[in-house]
Amino acid sequence: MSKKYILALDQGTTSSRAIIVDEKGTIVGMEQQEIQQIFPKSGWVEHDALEILETQLSTLKKVIQKATISNVDIVGLGITNQRETTVIWNKNTGKPIYNAIVWQDKRTVAVCETLKKEGLEKHIKQTTGLVVDAYFSGTKIHWILENVPKARKEADKGNLLFGTIDSWLLWNLTDKKVHATDYSNASRTMLFDIKNLCWDDTILAALNIPKSILPEVKPSSFHFGDYVLDGHQIPIAGIAGDQQAALFGQACFKKGEAKNTYGTGCFLLMNTGTELQFSKNGLLTTIAWGIDNKVYYALEGSVFVAGAAIQWLRDGLQIIKSAEESEAFAKEVKGENPVIVVPAFAGLGAPYWDMYARGAIFGLTRDTGKNHLIKATLQSLAYQTKDLLVAMQNDAETPLTSLKVDGGASANNLLMQFQADMLDVVVERPKITETTIMGAAYLAGICVGLWKQEEILSHRKIEQEFTPKYTSEKRERLYKKWLKALERSKDWID
Ligand SMILES: Nc1ncnc2c1ncn2[C@@H]1O[C@H](COP(=O)(O)OP(=O)(O)O)[C@@H](O)[C@H]1O
Ligand SMILES: O=P(O)(O)OC[C@H](O)CO
């Protein structure tokens, strides 16, 4: 009997990836292609939606070719994606009418202020679980419709479609042009009622967004449509936003289980079960996934700049040649680091939500060198995560005893040890840190009957545990310094 495989795609902020997973949950092939970052103005971040599609299709084809498997053995396809990033395209031509506006883009700050002035903050929080911020798709859609020539007219004629990256890929991959998304992605638009599972008319009216452009919303483990490859139909059977997919991939199936992903940004998510729970401490409430006719929720802390700060050391300051190198330089600083870097390059996300904060460096003296700066930048990832965990512990009923980690920067041992020291919890790094794309593979595999959800727990293996070593006096002293620095970076630009 021939083997069965799942194909999964991860369209991330910096790259498009594709993997093939076998029945045992082993990755047997992986392809990755970087995508171009476009910065047309200060605070603006865009991607070319056609490049996203091309790189994703090319990784998909290459991974199948290299794994030397037959298309007919691929029984399902899962998609995960950078969330909130907004594409609007013309359904007749299939062409985007503007570049994709990326989640990090801050051009819609003024629209957010208007929503607040109109008194919509409370309604938005209670309906969507989110805070009013330029981060989410809603104000980005509004911007495109208001600013791209003829966009409003075309939308009124019913010619335009909106999608987060999953919907853009799904529409293009399916012959029947399926226009849909899943609950986890919809919950990041700031337009979706996460309790009643429908688009919210009040917010749509406030942002002047016609319902006709929005996708249908489905569970995350669901047969969305088929991708036809050389005559063979592959069911697209799983879709989830990347952070929720990572929560699934880390098998955080029980209430109270949490993971932190160290990628471009940093995203701490805790499964809160099937009951809606709102944060009193600046975290977001979001949909984790929809499966088996149930919707699961999560509390989320989102930090905008994490691994991106390491990229800044590499590409901006050019004081390291690769992200990996940061560890060796940081190790050269013996003892406590007097320098603190607050990488609020795009304002501050959770739990502060300050769109006006900007990056800052503190504690410089005549003998400060590049190693101090590198170590401080790495440490800023751990401090920002501590801010999230403090907020989450204050919201949650049960304290967290361990943290599951993944994402590019989780490979950094110095950072992981400092993280355990600062949090005073054990940090658990799994063998497979590709949990995001595995989450998408699992959602698809479960839908097509290849796996049962419980089986996934046995796929997960720990590679290394980092145990806290600091005294509480040291931990508190360092954290206090961080909070002092943070305060001074807030409310910086006008
Ligand atoms: N060894 C490392 N130490 C610190 N940061 C790292 C290391 N390896 C990768 N990174 C950072 O991790 C990020 C890439 O992680 P990844 O999970 O691929 O991100 P994304 O999914 O957001 O594209 C980059 O921003 C990079 O700077
Ligand atoms: O593509 P990533 O991994 O940086 O994730 C981006 C997040 O989904 C933004 O909310």
How would you describe the overall organization of this protein?
There is one protein chain. By secondary structure, the protein is an alpha+beta fold. The protein has a domain at 5-240: Nucleotidyltransferase, domain 5 (2-Layer Sandwich), CATH 3.30.420. Helix content is 35%, strand content 25%. The protein contains 16 helices and 23 strands. β21, α13 and β22 form a beta-alpha-beta unit. α9 packs across α14 (435-447) and α12 (370-395) crosses α13. The mean pLDDT is 94. Bound molecules: adenosine-5'-diphosphate and SN-glycerol-3-phosphate. Adenosine-5'-diphosphate binds at residues 12-15, 263-264, 307-308, 310-311, 323-324, 326-327, 407-409, 411-412. Sn-glycerol 3-phosphate binds at residues 13, 83-84, 135, 242. Keywords: ATP-binding, Glycerol metabolism, Kinase, Nucleotide-binding, Transferase. ATP binds at residues 13-15, 264, 307, 311, 408. Key enzyme in the regulation of glycerol uptake and metabolism. Catalyzes the phosphorylation of glycerol to yield sn-glycerol 3-phosphate. InterPro entries: ATPase_NBD (IPR043129), Carb_kinase_FGGY (IPR000577), Carb_kinase_FGGY_CS (IPR018483), FGGY_C (IPR018485), FGGY_N (IPR018484), Glycerol_kin (IPR005999).
